[in-house]
Amino acid sequence: MGVSFDKIDGFIWFDGKLVPWADANVHVLTHGLHYASCVFEGERAYSGSIFKSREHSERLKRSAQILDFEIPYSIAEVDAAKQLVIDRNGLPDAYVRAFAWRGSEMMGVSAPTNSIHVAIACWTWPSYFDPAERLKGIRIGLAEYRRPDPRTIPALAKASGLYMICTISKHIAERKGYAEALMLDWEGRIAECTSANVFFIKDGKVHTPIADCFLDGITRQTVIDLARRRGIEVIERRIMPDEMSNFSECFITGSAAEITPVSEIAHWRFTPGALSKQLMEDYSAEVQPRNTKAVAYSALASSQNTSPSDSSVSSQRKDISG
After folding, report:
1. How is domain 131-286 classified at the architecture level of CATH?
2. Which of 129, 141, 144, 193 is deepest in the core (most CB within 10 A)?
3. Does domain 11-125+291-321 have CATH number 3.40.1190.10?
4. What pTM did the predictor assign?
């Protein structure tokens, strides 16, 4: 299993300053733990820069607003803090987790005045799935739980509580020898996997479910854009499980999964082919940094009305690292 996550050596950005990893703790009577009033982002840094950092920070803020609380930092500040965590931990290629939650002032269901806390951590986390498995395609089972009607949950928020059925479903799938589980929606249509969006290929066209009861993932959006740049038609539509017998290729996407081909979903079979491979190569090229570190720090300097040409970057490091 490796080192327990509370035993990793490094630094975590916690409520405005860097603290030693072991000191980034909360009380057990925390609203976010008991009532799932917590939102988060999963991101990846490549060669020292976080891919689409701003988009992730914007979604973090939106998710919090959907859960009826405001994150007490600007998007520019969150971006800069994430970059600081990458730099201070010396992990240019890392998984990044930014999250926010309600504090401990009130333990009832209603806690509108509870303090809001924000933390950011990063760690070394290679591709979600074994590299050898990725190349030949992973095996996926069907989940028993379904994605709920969006009228019953805040489906467009990346909220921790929504992942409860994902954890249960993935545990069951893994016990059966699968790497993942495919979830249907409340009407029995294909939705997503427990932590990744799903795509299918037929006759050179890409098909993917409409993202209305699950997150329109940032990696999902990137892959759709990459495909369309190549002139590949992408069709977002309702897809029924029986249609999987008509598709030749399948892959899943996510910040952790990146692009991972699929060879099997329950009794349906797929063969990872040229189109999946091409999109994997395009994605690998797309995530390479474009000086996003400088953008993050300069945006923060602007938000504080300081000049990026002076010592604002170094002073900012002092301000947000404590």
Report:
1. Alpha-Beta Barrel (3.20)
2. 193
3. no
4. 0.88
* Catalytically annotated residue among 158, 205, 293, 318: 158
Query: Cβ neighbours of residue 43 under 8 Å, at least 6 residues apart?
Result: 50, 51, 52, 53, 56, 82, 95, 96, 97, 98, 255
- pLDDT at residue 175 greater than cutoff 90: yes
Q: Tens digit of pLDDT for each residue in 59-68?
A: 999 999 999 9
58 alpha carbon, distance to own chain's centre: 13
Residues 6+ apart with CB under 8 A from 270: 137, 247, 248, 249, 250, 261, 262, 263, 264
Task: Give percent helix, percent strand, percent coil of the chain, each to the nearest 5.
Answer: 35, 25, 40
Q: For residue range 9-58, what is the model confidence (pLDDT) as tens digits?
A: 999 999 999 999 999 999 999 999 999 999 999 999 999 999 999 999 99
Residue 240 phi, psi (nearest 5): -90, 150
